Amino acid sequence: MPDFDPGSPAFLADPYPAYAELRARGRVHYYEPSDQWLVPHHADVSALLRDRRLGRSYGHRFTHVEFGRTPPPAGHEPFHELNDQGMLELEPPDHTRIRRLVAKAFTPRTVERLAPYVRQLARTLVARLVERGGGDLLTAVAEPLPVAVIAEMLGVPEADRPLLRPWSAAICGMYELNPPEETARRAVTASVEFSAYLRELIAARREKPGDDLVSGLIAAHDDGEKLTEAEMVATCALLLNAGHEATVNATVNGWHALFRNPGRLAELRADRALLPTAVEELMRYDTPLQLFERWVLDEIEIGGTRVPRGAEVALLFGSANHDPAVFAAPETLDLSRRENPHISFSAGIHYCIGAPLARIELAASLSALLDLAPGLRPAGEPVRKPNFVIRGLEGLPVQV
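Above: the chain sequence. Below: its structure as tokens.
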């Protein structure tokens, strides 16, 4: 697979031609550098996300030895203690229990109540960008909006919010393929600091509850639900990380796509009724999460190829979202696309619980930029992050 090379700048700049080649060659491919089976077709990715023969973890059924896997280094333990007890990394029954508790506090009503705050904050951030005549869209709007929103939900004091993004970025580095030891070291340090901070926040909310999500999780725990403090810490970290990481990257990837398709941007400026479908299309067109990994707990077969127990599959969201078997003209940015079953928010039991909030945030920032910065344009070529799994930009310089 010479064109599939996550370490290549050319691939990272535009992985979609390589995905097309993978889809043409078959339904599953073994990729030796990461010891994974790549799954590029929408139908297979969608089905495997729902297949209980696969799991995000295997510890609920097997030891490392039984599963044929080497335990992670002891020095990485703080990262795994924080990461592996979050509901994204768990399988039933623990996943079911924790997700039910989070859903009690993370209700549609709670999300809808935040909508006015999200829209006002988006307009405030964009107004500051306009006052300055431009700047970096990433640091001026894309980052601070979702970070502030999820911090508001969780009850993180405003003065502490600048801590969140660096911790999140360091931890998310571990989700890339074959992360180097230096990345692991940063993730461990961030995990230790983040965990300590969250324990203090939880202790403060126990002492003085509020109407925030942390207080809601404590109340559910104290009412007899079996949510340990370690699970609470991991859940809060997951919500803080996942609650903004995808939105940040979807925002800058989306505007980068609009700048490269000026005709589509002109359509959106002329017709704001396109906003709902535009949000979905921008999520599909340049997917912020390109890959989602699952362990094979019981042997499966994909297109006649046997994938054994103990293997790891890499479900290629970016490829699935460009599959011509599902999307007409998938390489075309079509902001009015009605049939758009993209899987950018995953599917099955691990479907993103924050998807409704992410949609509100993306629509709010798009709307504010269209209203307050009608002449928004690029001010230089952005630099893409050297990441594959979490796809984004180092920055997006703009002028107004």
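The chain has a mean pLDDT of 93.
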